[in-house]
Design goal:
With 97 residues, this protein is mainly alpha-helical. The longest helix is centred in the N-terminal third of the chain and has 29 residues.
Length: 97
């Protein structure tokens, strides 16, 4: 059975998307670290009403989505699968409430 032909353009796009996901994860980690050291927000927050706990839950939801995309893209699947399991065990996700 012949193997499907994957264009160089498709491979390049996939690499770019995975690099973007890794960059987003770094930004989420940095933002969460900044939230962890803050006792309150200094700006008006119409989205989550300055609730730092909800922002951390929101970060976890985004992080989970990025991990799943990286696993699907074949990027260090074992590491990100472990991270998904850890997040699911903690069960600290934004629910929109």
């Amino acid at each position: 059975m012949p193997q499907p032909i994957i264009s160089a353009r498709k491979v390049t796009q996939t690499i770019q998307i995975n690099q973007q996901n890794l960059t987003i994860l770094k930004e989420i980690d940095l933002a969460e670290a900044n939230l962890s050291s803050a006792s309150s927000m200094t700006l008006t927050d119409p989205l989550l009403n300055e609730d730092l706990g909800k922002w951390k839950q929101f970060a976890n939801a985004l992080r989970l989505r990025m991990y799943l995309r990286l696993i699907d893209g074949g990027i260090d699947a074992d590491t990100y699968t472990s991270k998904v399991k850890t997040l699911l065990t903690l069960n600290n996700f934004f629910t929109g409430d």
